[in-house]
Fold this protein.
Amino acid sequence: MSSMTTSPDPGPAHHLWVDASAGVAGDMLLGALVDAGADLAGVQAAVDTVLPGTVLLETATVTRAGLRALKVDVRLLVEDQPHRTWREIRSLLTEAALPEQVRQASLTVFGLLAEAEARVHGVQVDEVHFHEVGAWDSIADVLGVVAAVDLLGVTDVTASAVALGSGRTRTAHGDVPVPAPATLQLSTGWPVLSGGEGELATPTGMALVRGLASASGDLPPLQVDAVGVGAGSKDTPGRPNVVRVVRGPLAVAEPAGARTGAPAGVAAAGHGSGLDQERLLVLEANVDDLDPRVWPEVLALLLDAGAADAWLTPILMKKGRPAHTLSVLCHAGSREGLRELVFRQTTTFGIREHPVARTTLRRDWRPVSVRGHTVRVKISTDVQGEVLHATPEFEDALSAARACALPVRQVLDEAAVAAAAAGIVPGVVPPGSPTPA
């Protein structure tokens, strides 16, 4: 059981849109989320889980170019903390009693920061010494933002193009151009604009956008139920130095022929929809010189090591050489171990990766008996609890087939008949299921 304070059930699943068109920093985004209703005590509890008795989150209402906004300051309660390596930060997050979704999202954000810093400074990822990022206030910013998103009941995040700024700024490494090198590295593949003078986006802010948002775009159709405005430190005349967030269930257009003027329906993956959403990574490598007999073992090792899925795709590489793309779907927390396994078990010299959002049906297992042997049936259900798919587990069927000296296809057919006899069929709520809320 986590020691982190949680907010009351936030109800239906919510989408969060981040307006970073004026820039983004960790404290600005945290201020916007608290302003939108995230429980400050819950956020503080999450930070205290990793940095006990170290910092205090304080809020104040301010104006930025005439707009009201909430400013969050991170006050140090003890002597200044040492700069930390990515290895040390990862250990803190892994060992802390955090909700798993908060832990994984935090690891994703810090992992992106570490890789950007390693690329910029030409060092190994684990040995990156964070200055801005590894300091106590930035750890508080990242954890605070991730916890606030969770406390708001958000299941998906998108964000606008990010204003990066222009000119030059001072960092722990000296005078550097804007965008700062790590910020620019983190911007790869994301829509950006200069947006004005000075440093408008920090590495921490950009990493939070990249680690939490599944896509970039304009404000999607929402039934808005909360708006938050977070302030940066500077008050620039004529340009509000703020980040805005907008929360609400995604609004869905009505079916063709629906009554004109009727309220739009609401649907979102998450609480109450029969769907689950999660943010994952895909690791990929093209391999053209591995003995094909090795691939089944490689895939099995990856799945045993925690991959959510692993597969091969036949491709043609340069000069028409046949090859395979190895793809590994995983959570951010298992990325490094799986990446090391791919390097060790294959002949690849490089691995690509990119974030993905996965939406899955709710699933369960129901046992049936086939000739005295148990075969599990995997079922998926909709929001009403009715079965959408019911599939006998192949490995169970194979084991029963060998024990009975029968063809496995026959055992699969008999398992399907047994499942139907037990009421496990599409369109029906299976016996023993809880009544939908």
